[in-house]
Amino acid sequence: MFPELLNHRAEQVSARLNAAVLATPPHRLRDAMLHAVSGGKRLRAFLVIEGAAMFDVPAAQAVQAAAAVEAIHAYSLVHDDLPAMDDDDLRRGQPTVHVKWDEATAVLVGDGLQSLAFDLLADPAMGPHRADLVASLAKAAGAMVLGQAQDIAAETADTPLTLDQITTLQANKTGALIAWSAEAGARLAGEDPAPLTSYATALGLAFQIADDILDVEGSADKTGKRVGKDAEAGKATFVSLLGLDAAKNRAGELVQQACDALANYGERAESLRAAARFVISRES
Amino acid sequence: MFPELLNHRAEQVSARLNAAVLATPPHRLRDAMLHAVSGGKRLRAFLVIEGAAMFDVPAAQAVQAAAAVEAIHAYSLVHDDLPAMDDDDLRRGQPTVHVKWDEATAVLVGDGLQSLAFDLLADPAMGPHRADLVASLAKAAGAMVLGQAQDIAAETADTPLTLDQITTLQANKTGALIAWSAEAGARLAGEDPAPLTSYATALGLAFQIADDILDVEGSADKTGKRVGKDAEAGKATFVSLLGLDAAKNRAGELVQQACDALANYGERAESLRAAARFVISRES
């Protein structure tokens, strides 16, 4: 069953991520880093580990690559939550780092987690293709930062974003890291990741549409973060542009596209298909 | 002459760094990144390029590795200058990023520059040892963040730091990145970087003592940043702990140690020796 497998992968990656943080010297900063990497669905980790299994990558390498992308994701959340950015005080059901510690600590936690991600990925244990993994993750992390800057710029722009603009923005902000996760297994195996790109592109977009739907229909209790933020901020989202029903239909179509893109992999890709179906059915 | 060679290396690394930033999509964020990477002495770049020349590393690889470490250094300055951190409005004689743009942009500029550094270093053009360079730079960047956290913690501690504690703090905050720079050439060549570690350790400490002396004796005009900050904040520094004269003597001894550590390299290491002498004679 998908939820059990997702939980199992989440436990594996959490253990690896905690061990990596705990390998750094004891300090208040380390406590805050541990807090920042805890919780979450670990969807990116799931994509890495299940994608890697399709290419018979050793499990330890897959889990370590998954820990790297979750470290990048966690750093981005800590920085996005800062008062100067989205100013959120709740994340994954817990107080955000700048609330529980302070802003300076939150900046440093994010910075340290980004370094840790590349440290994990460049480890000799990661095999002969580790530099390619670093280069592609660095590009995805750069795109993510650009997407966040585009998102902030949109909030103060005179005209709301068009559907094309919001699609580009989200492809940067969340799509690039999701795509990297789906492609990481192929890269670890030294195989061409291109066949997974169609899957990942459709999945990333479906994920963001589902996020916009959750911001309208979800509860803070289940999502572990503040909801209704987008409408409050008057932000253009897939829901505001398409309407709720059309957004749901579009997300469903994208999941179908994502699944279809994996046709050549047959049964081996069943976990990735389940992940695609999950992103639009999740409640958090 | 050393100043001319330093300038020449600075121009080479600045050109590479600008090109790397300009290869990202045009955006307000990119303008701010260009601002953040401009100026500076480029001492770390000098150490990388001259260190690499000792091992006959191709110049293009050396300059690109130098651009990577300067990107990390620039990111750290942008984040350190934030209001929640050191709250500085002047850097390299120019307004800081959060002053000229805003805090959110400054956070994202730093984040993007860290990603860019690893992107540059993991580039296939960097040769067969690029993953080792990434792993070692990621560790140095992690140490730098810890050093900054230790520095902030020291400001609010009940008792001032001891000489041992401040030495550890600075070895993390500035020493690790300087050491990486000195060792990068050996790593690029696949040689053991250990012989350069004694040089780099002594150099890094001399550099920080000189920084503390400049904070007392320097001018904002020449340093391009606010001076007198440490005394104002009642911070323990090498100068407050040792006294000005003993601090100068100690820096001189460390430079001698750094030069002696290069004895086996003979004439080839003359540039690195000149760099060591420079760090305690500089006015900025």
Automatic annotation (TrEMBL), chains A, B:
Q: What is this protein called?
A: Geranylgeranyl diphosphate synthase
Q: In which pathway does it act?
A: Isoprenoid biosynthesis; geranylgeranyl diphosphate biosynthesis; geranylgeranyl diphosphate from farnesyl diphosphate and isopentenyl diphosphate: step 1/1
Cofactor or coenzyme needed: Mg(2+)
GO cellular component annotations, sorted alphabetically? cytoplasm
Which keywords has UniProt assigned to this entry?
Carotenoid biosynthesis, Chlorophyll biosynthesis, Isoprene biosynthesis, Magnesium, Metal-binding, Photosynthesis, Transferase
Its function, per the record, reads: Catalyzes the condensation of farnesyl diphosphate (FPP) and isopentenyl diphosphate (IPP) to yield geranylgeranyl diphosphate (GGPP) needed for biosynthesis of carotenoids and diterpenes.
**Record flagged with keyword DNA-binding:** no
